[in-house]
């Protein structure tokens, strides 16, 4: 590992200037820290940057090597100042802006910052959004599409390794559609964007909400619809495309968690009824029947087999 004093200069010279076509200026008082994660998704890229006070600058002499791309930036911790396309604005957490990566750029977080952004090819975006260059450097209008994009970007953090090329390409298309939906698609592209990327992101949001709240015994379909601003029928319709109902998805999350707890030595002190209640079941007999139907074994049998393996 590089010594601490050499890390910033190495990042600036060998990564920022060569790969991002950006110069970097430290404003941390000599103790800079920059954490970058990047996920390539076909023609789309997703990047997350967490920094101490720092300034990123794309001077005009870098533009000859820059790609014809746009970047939609979502600020997670600010304030962060973006200057691009003759516009300059300060953005707080939850706000967003579009950047034309073919023009000079300055980004400054005086107190550090955290920004998540998605880059898309200019030609691809222009096929869905009329004259996106006119939106560059300006704040993006907040609304459901931006919240949907933000949730989708956050969900990608769950990848432990890079997705397959086929899955990466599919996710890339979904993100392109979500960027277009956030900016405002053209009349010709509105239906494509809605039926493709937006629908996929809404389904992902539903499944994420189920995965987050399944242990609540009172959690139901109405809770999901209300939390995500969708109608009950629309939630059901999206879930139909997965081949499972809301009830089946909810039971699946609860049963998988119960299985994990039954096979974890750290939960040996819990009775099976306690585990059933902990994952959201209100009746232990119902839990036992569902568990056996799902795994082909009783909860007590699974726990006994796991304990025997631990003792060998």
UniProtKB/TrEMBL annotation:
High-level lineage: Bacteria, Pseudomonadati, Pseudomonadota, Alphaproteobacteria, Hyphomicrobiales
Pfam families: AraC_binding_2, HTH_18
Residue ranges annotated for the HTH araC/xylS-type domain, each copy included: 204-305
Gene3D superfamilies: Homeodomain-like (1.10.10.60)
SUPFAM superfamilies: Homeodomain-like
Entry-linked InterPro entries: AraC-bd_2, AraC_XylS_family_regulators, Homeodomain-like_sf, HTH_AraC, Tscrpt_reg_AraC-type_HTH
Keywords: DNA-binding, Transcription, Transcription regulation
Protein's name according to its UniProt entry: HTH araC/xylS-type domain-containing protein
Biological source species: Bradyrhizobium macuxiense
